[in-house]
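Key result, reporting period 2: structure in, sequence out.
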């Protein structure tokens, strides 16, 4: 089994976070889809545990972009057009650890209605605060302990295998306690919102910006997610600074806050 300790998101912007690296594709015109997580993972599980070729055919037919992203970008098994890619894909998951992980993830997430409800409510709030916010489709997958969230052009992929709970035995072999703290069901929706907003509001000239600017940019995103979730999911010092800034500037909107690239007024009140 390879890449057991890897990055969270496929795309282009590298973002700060302890022990994590985030990447994003560009966000283009999205479409309105029901706010229900599509169960791509069930087709994937069927193929990878039984070898049912009809499941793979349905994956390629109904979810061509998701399948290509999983095979080519996440697992890096080759291109989707390779003659033996289906067998390579199948064999990759025959490791006993991954087979157990698939079974455990499917059992843990047999029902995702709570996730659907949270997505609908929190994304609805964001839509009220950010006029014109484009709604992606959401889908679940088994990513072999690779990225947690995958942001595509019109989609958000959720790797269920990265949200099995802080005490999941396999995690203790590869992740420390601080990392495992966020690998729980309760972080799925906040992570979806965080990385989707980051794809819409990337920081300009990220590589050349001061570290404090980068941290505060992430703080803005996390603050907006907390507000959308109606609870404090993220509690970093940078989130607290953004909260203080908003209290001092009550007329600023969520959209204005996320779009503003001038961090000098915020840095003026930040305390390490």
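The corresponding designed sequence is given below.
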């Amino acid at each position: 089994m390879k890449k057991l300790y890897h990055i969270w998101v496929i795309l282009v912007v590298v973002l700060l976070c302890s022990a994590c690296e985030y990447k994003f594709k560009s966000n283009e015109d999205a479409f309105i889809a029901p706010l229900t997580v599509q169960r791509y993972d069930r087709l994937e599980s069927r193929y990878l545990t039984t070898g049912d070729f009809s499941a793979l055919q349905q994956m390629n037919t109904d979810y061509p972009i998701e399948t290509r992203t999983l095979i080519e970008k996440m697992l890096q098994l080759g291109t989707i057009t390779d003659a033996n890619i289906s067998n390579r894909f199948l064999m990759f998951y025959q490791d006993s650890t991954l087979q157990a992980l698939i079974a455990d993830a499917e059992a843990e997430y047999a029902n995702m209605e709570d996730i659907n409800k949270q997505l609908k409510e929190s994304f609805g709030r964001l839509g009220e605060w950010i006029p014109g916010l484009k709604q992606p489709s959401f889908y679940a997958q088994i990513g072999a302990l690779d990225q947690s969230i995958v942001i595509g052009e019109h989609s958000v992929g959720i790797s269920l295998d990265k949200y099995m709970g802080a005490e999941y035995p396999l995690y203790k072999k590869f992740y420390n306690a601080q990392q495992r703290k966020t690998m729980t069901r309760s972080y799925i929706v906040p992570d979806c919102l965080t990385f989707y907003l980051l794809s819409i509001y990337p920081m300009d000239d990220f590589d050349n910006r001061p570290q404090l600017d980068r941290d505060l940019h992430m703080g803005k995103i996390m603050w907006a997610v907390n507000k959308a979730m109606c609870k404090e999911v993220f509690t970093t010092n940078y989130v607290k600074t953004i909260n203080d800034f908003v209290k001092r500037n009550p007329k600023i909107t969520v959209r204005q806050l996320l779009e503003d690239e001038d961090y000098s007024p915020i840095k003026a009140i930040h305390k390490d």
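The longest strand covers residues 137-141. The radius of gyration is 19 Å. This case is discussed further under Risks and Mitigation.
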